[in-house]
Design goal:
By secondary structure, the protein is an all-alpha fold. Helix content is 72%, strand content 0%. It has one domain.
Length: 158
Amino acid sequence: MRSRNAGQHRHQRSGHGGDERGLAPALGKSFGLAEGEGRSASIAQQTSLDGEPPRERLKAVIQLYSERLNPDGMAIELAIRQWARSDGTAAAAVASVDAARLKHVAELYRATGLDAEEAEAQAFLFYCFIFGQSLLFDERGPRKRSQLVAKPAEKLLN
């Protein structure tokens, strides 16, 4: 049975004095609610072709997320996603960033010749791989990890 005060204790432990809504401006700035700022702008920049072939841009995005693992960044991403389960502002920010991620990568796949539906499905798979591989612990070292990432990444580029 859940304690009536469980939510209150959770807020006290979080250090926000029970007022998570006070974090909304920081969330908006860092996770892309403000136009031209945060994650959405970063995603647009990361996926911009700038004269590069679309497969090369996709490869560069895979390398960005798989070669430079950022445990702090992933912890923040996961914390915001957990918060989004119970907060409308956080949920809107996460949905907005996810939509931008999928849209921009789908555009890259469209530029490779895929139709819209297939490009959207491939973009979804792309981000499943990007986030999934970053959550897995591989104790065999960076070289083996790099080899393991290379094979599925290659499939995402074909």
